[in-house]
Amino acid sequence: MRRPFEVILAVSAGLILAFLLLPILALFLRIPPGDLLSQLTSEVAVDALLVSVKTSLIAHAVVLLLGTPTAYLIATRRFRGRSLVLTLIELPLVLPPAVAGIALFAAFGRAGLLGETLHAAGISIPFTQTAVVFAIIFVSSPFYIRLGIAAFEALDPALIDASRTLGAGPRRTFFRVALPLAAGGLSAASALAFARGLGEFGATIMFAGSLQGVTQTLPLAIYAQLDLDFDIALALGAFLVVVSVAVLLTVKLLPSWTRFTLISLAPSGRSD
Amino acid sequence: MRRALLAFALVALAGCGGAAGGGDTNDHATVFAASSLTEVFPQIDPAATYNFAGSDDLATQITEGAPADVFAAASTKYPHQLYDEGLIDKPEVFATNRLVLIVPKDNPAGIQSVDDLRNPDVKLVIGAEGVPIGDYTRTVLENMGATDVLDQVVSEEDDVKGVVGKVSLGEADAGFVYVTDVKPVEDKVTAIELPAEAQAKVQYEIAVVKDAPHHDAAHQFVEQVLSEDGQAKLQAAGFGPR
User: Fold this and answer.
1) Using CB atoms within 10 A of its CB, is residue B223 exposed (0-12), middle (13-18) or buried (19+)?
2) pLDDT digits (tens, 9 = 90+) for B170-203
3) B198: which of A83, A86, B23, B158 is 20 to 30 A away, CA to CA?
């Protein structure tokens, strides 16, 4: 009776694994690796890469800068409406990207809620790289904040308490205790949010449009090249797979870094 | 437990089979049609299943084996390409169209003609290269000696509805679309006619897909589009005679 059960487990796992990996493998097998690489140096691919790197980095800097304190606040403070704030932050996570795109228009578009105010200030956001950055922040910051909250919540409250009773103020406690201790979890959150932002498609194509060298990010270039030059689309797809694998590996390797941080911090006061 | 699992797997598999086969039980054609036909085709045959997108996207989908019965494109380029590859029957011209320039009703950039598009503040949206509307737009601008207005392009859309959407939303100042796209949004946009001599030759072609799952329904659909009634509906929607 036990054997057949093991077989069912193994067959199920085998089937789903094959289903998940076959398309990704096929991406690399459809054209020779040499062609794949040479397609990546095409003008469209290079332009898309530059646009993606620039907008993703700017967006990610904003996400880290504003998201980390936000995550810390929600993780360590109990206040009225906390669960509401938490739910609101989670909303963009489950929102369809097309809704995000139309919502950004409704808020920051020319005919949008802030349209006239922005226009009076001489600012126009749709169809610019700022629009791409907005779209990325909108979809990736909830990701970072949600995982960041988990990272801060996983900290032993006794360590925070100890820091406070030993005379460190809240700011010092945040920078010297909480942040270093949560570094592993925050880095994992950061890597996953970055990957999510790099792959942003729906909100970007609506709110920022698609123009080579300006707003055409890697995923948008794949879409645009699908019917023009399938090989470039394949090459860009394969490239994003490699980036995703790198992100995942980073995340998997992080727990050991965390341990390292913990150990190096353990004899407090000595390491710095 | 094992029985339950097996039963579950069988039901799941049977469900898939049923779903896959389900599409074949009805006799309606699955029509892959250019975005610009979105309004008029359902008037000609409300029962057919439609997939509206850029003709280039549709061609890619058919090449990749999508179960289409009929391919109706906003150009002759992709039908001929698929015909040469043996994927569809010989295509036939069933309608013509012409381009217009559209601006939002309140016309924030004050555009009256193609010349006004040269203003550096203008946000122009056009179809991407390879998409029929994108290629026709470039032809028209070349015919008018006005390719420099391409500097004002802020977005290259993947089909004509993308252009219409961004202009009717008021986010873009102007866009080139087919005259037939204007009617559904006429309360939101104003159309500016282009000189007749600058027009591109916009021909729509239709053909039955070789491996059409609903072969008979596909032929009926094409006949209906080419019929007097179908032609009348196309012309009522603003298309030119074939």
Assistant:
1) exposed
2) 899 999 999 999 988 999 999 999 999 999 999 9
3) B158
Give the pLDDT score at A272. 38
CATH code of the region B28-96+202-236: 3.40.190.10
The answer to whether residues A139 and A197 touch, using CB atoms and an 8 Å cutoff, is: yes
At A36 the pLDDT is: 86
The CA distance from B81 to the nearest CA of chain A, in Å, is 12
The whole-number pLDDT of residue A263 equals: 46
The whole-number average pLDDT for the span A195-210 is 92
Which residues in chain A have their CB less than 8 angstroms from residue B6's CB? 8
Torsion of CA B210, B212, B215, B218, to 10 degrees: -100
- The alpha carbon dihedral of B196, B197, B198, B200 has a sign of positive
* Helical H segments across chain A, by residue range: 2-29, 33-39, 43-76, 82-94, 97-108, 115-120, 129-153, 157-165, 170-173, 179-181, 183-198, 202-207, 218-225, 230-265
- CB within 8 Å: B171 and A126: yes
> Which residue in B has a C-alpha nearest to residue A12's C-alpha?
B9
Q: Which residue has the tokens 């008021």?
A: B170
Reported ipTM: the value is 0.71
Answer yes or no: is pLDDT of B22 > 60: no
CATH class name, domain B99-198: alpha beta
* Closest residue on chain A to B57 (Cα): A227
pLDDT of residue B26: 63
Reduce the DSSP state of residue B205 to 3 states and report it. Answer: strand
CA–CA separation, B184 and B158 (whole Å): 19
Q: Pick from A8, A109, A126: which is nearest to B2 by CB?
A: A8
pLDDT higher than 50, residue B75: yes
Query: Which of A209, A224, A230 lies closest to B154 in CB terms?
Result: A209
The Cα A244–Cα A238 span in angstroms is 10
The H or E element containing residue B161 is helix B160-168
Average pLDDT of span A107-118: 88
pTM: 0.78
How big, in percent rounded to 5, are the helix, strand and coil portions of chain B? 45, 25, 30
* CB atoms B154 and A111 under 8 Å: no
Residues of A with CB under 8 A from a CB of B: 1, 4-5, 8, 105, 109-111, 124, 126-128, 205, 208-212, 214-215, 223-224, 226-228, 230
Which pLDDT belongs to residue A255?
A: 64
Amino acid B63 reads: T
Mean pLDDT along residues A228-237: 89
